[in-house]
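Researcher: Please predict.
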Amino acid sequence: MFKYHPRFSPTPVHKHSFIEMIYVYSGSCTQIIGDNSITMNKGDLCILDTNTYHTISPIGNNDIVINCLIKKSYFDATFLSRLSGNDILARFFVRSIYQSKDFNDYILFMYDEEINVNEIIENMLCEYHDKKTCFSEVINSYLVILFSELLRSYNKCINHKNYKALYNNKISDIIMYIQKNYMSCTIVSTAKHFNFHPVYLSKILKKLPIATFMDLKNEARLRKARLLLENTSYKVDAIARDIGYSNISFFYKIFKEKYKMTPSEYRKSRYKELSSK
């Protein structure tokens, strides 16, 4: 969801359950994140983790600040796989989703005249407001392009001080590995891939709100199921088998536990939601 930050009025200190991207289209703004006061100028972009307290001082007539609010569920295995090679942002998003209680960071990208962030943001805004056919897919593609462009200017733009916690973090790598290989991986094969003992891997995963290896596999499967329900006419039983569930009743059970509705109800609700746009 895109919105324009209101002018003249202060924003109370707050945090979100989603990832927020703040872009200064023109003018400037002062953002306070934790104990840090950051002045952002035209062309600067900041990505905030979930659970990060921040506020923005009142902005003036000549200041245009754009907020992009992204639900954690948006970053499914398909989207994360499109960020392969962009380890910096992929790890940031993985940690935001799975370690939000322990991780409240941000990345600040300063204006770089060599990348076309402004043009990409404008294109996304046009797609969001016009809502032409396949606008969601086009926005997804622009986001991947945006993140790739930001990575190109990483060495010049990134705020190392506030990003140092992301380095050498195996949990992010493990989660991405499970999401990409959920159909075939086991806790033994995953542990072997990372040179761990399976018992030690289990202990690592207990640090997460989703506490077990099977929970992570099931979440990856359900994300794929949701994608298929939204974008295909496949029967629910076929989708369950396609993502690796031979026990269809078990698939229905965990889907309803996760999304508070059956797969068929989910498909109908998403179709209704998209049709109303």
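Model: The longest helix spans residues 213-231.
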